Amino acid sequence: MNNPFKKLLPAQSSVIEKNVTGLGTFGGVFTPSILTILGVIMYLRFGWVVGNVGLLGTFLIVTLSVSITFLTALSISSIATDKRVRTGGAYYMISRSLGIEAGGAIGIPLYLAQALSIALYTVGFAESVVNVFPNLNFKLVGLLTTLGITILALISAKTAIRAQYFIMVGIGLSLLSLLFGRPLEETDIEMWGTVDSNSEGFWVVFAVFFPAVTGIMAGVNMSGDLKDPAKSIPKGTLAAVGVGYLIYMTLPVILATRADASTLIEDPMIMRKIAYWGDAIIIGVWGATLSSALGSILGAPRVLQALARDRVLPQKLDWLGRGSGQEDAPRNGTIFTLGLALVAVYFGNLNIIAPILTMFFLTTYGVLNASAGIESLLKSPSFRPEFKVHWIFSILGTLGCMAVMFLINATATAVAFVFVGVIFFWLQNRELKTTWGGVRRGLWLAVIRKGLLNLGQEKEIKNWRPNPIVLSGAPTRRWHLIDLASAITHNRGILTVATVLQGKDVTGTQRKRMEYNIHEFLLKRGMQGLVRVISSKDPFSGSEELVKSYGLGPLVPNTVILGDSEEDSVREKYCGMITKFHSMERNVIIVRANNNPVFGNRKKIDVWWGGLKGNGGLMMIISYLLKNSRTWHDTEITIKMVVGNEKAAGETRKNMEGILKNLRTGAELEVIVSNGRSFDEILHRSSQKADLILLGMAMPNDNFRTYYENLQQRIHNLPTTLLVLAAEEISFSEVLMQQETFMSD
Q: Who has greater pLDDT, 101 or 457?
């Protein structure tokens, strides 16, 4: 059996991360970020953007896009200055904030987005090359380029970063050449674009443009290779966003004043024609596309490596988490990513790939903002970022991402959410164990605190529901007790499974191990519930103390479920415990299991009824809840009453039919005329074929032990019987009138 107390962090299970490249802010964050921002979309699609939506429309798209990335950059900066950001970038941040399931649900789409980005940039490069050299094969150029940059990435991350410095010089030269260029034709500046059959709508254009500003992830994805991520990520990312915004707000003016809308739309290489030195644009395009592709081929495998090390991926893919050399380079992941990128290059084009990337990146950005916003809102003591951002800005970023996704394409957004949701629940079902925790616990604690403080001490009859505590002992031997409790809660009440370990030498570790084992047992049976294990010299006094002290504020168990006692030697203590439970105003349900299986076929429940007050009302509620549970849904409930003669039987039927009609529990009525027979004789003859019998118990008094022993004799040889004792100071008849509401809320 696995040791439940072996705290093993998945990311630590195979490789301890090293940081030997020591990249700084400029080389490790700003350079890859700005080069990815000033990439293929700027050179090959910015003219198309201006031509479709005009100068003001472009300003709006740029400002809206950069606003989202700016808010996300603030959130990233906040998270990065709170905790050490290791390999995996955005995935690492989300998983350590929202938990492994949320991290994996975003990390996998993020990896796919990064892998597709490689294809986006190499397709853009191939498009520009074929524009200059028409005789070349477009797909072949794209495939060979993808292979080439992958080889460079495999050599060394530091070598790849150094190569980007030269590319930056080329991009700077191309922008200067564009600035000092000349008009291609006379043009009237289009403020809101053309209105003809060739123009695209605002949100279609936005979807194509948005990947141009997603370069903020390039630096974050290299987090494991940075000397000081907490310092470099905020400075480098925000600087890249600012510089990129200035350039993107300047270029539309140049384009709109040098060519008309139709030319901007139709010619992807329009910048080359209007630049002072046209070939400088070619250098810039090639440099931008290659550097962006290089940034993605460096980042995507590192996200994949982190996913594999955290065991988010299937076990067969653990080899993707291995690192090579002193730099711990993800060479296996790089080769795997190469395969995906080659497929995307072969089948894709810019206008198809870009919108897909937009959805993936917006999803990632939205969750990143949510992570920072929730952490800041909860004010957790463990969240102490040096770069402080008010939670409103992060939540605004989340809402902005979601709104833009729906405005672009509601169907695609729904598909993206479903995709992320499927991954989340898949990971949740795998029950991955981590030691870093997540913000979800803090979020739940905040909700619980607010709820408990607002719950109040007064009981509301309308909202009554069973919150059972099951004294199960070893749950494997008394599973029927937990099964019964689950059936009457319907996953709406709070179920607690409790055990008292007998002995004075029981250690805290032993109690925790027992709690863990019971919790795992419940999960394997598909059961939700809390677990409580205590130790005591005497199991009866221990149970009394547990029931008395267990709970939080007004939220305490209102019903105790336990098994019957057959041992004469402990009968006095057992009956004393029942008496104490009643004095605590806890309802008691004693299960005397006679059938095998315990609940038979779950088709017939007999309720021996003496009126709505007290036990009668509680028994009606229990039978009703059982009938509406998943495991008892086909059962037939019969309310049985004994009267002395036929006249009394007629009156009883008339009164009871009206009551049952108002109660709407679906129960049938059977009125039995005694004709001189004893109740015990009628009980045994009438309920011999039932699967479950419900009988009420008298209130405990000084002779309760004698009463209980007689009751045990009465139900001997009967099918499984529930002995019900109502103790709460509420009218269960009024609760019954609200059961329809209870079942539908």
A: 101
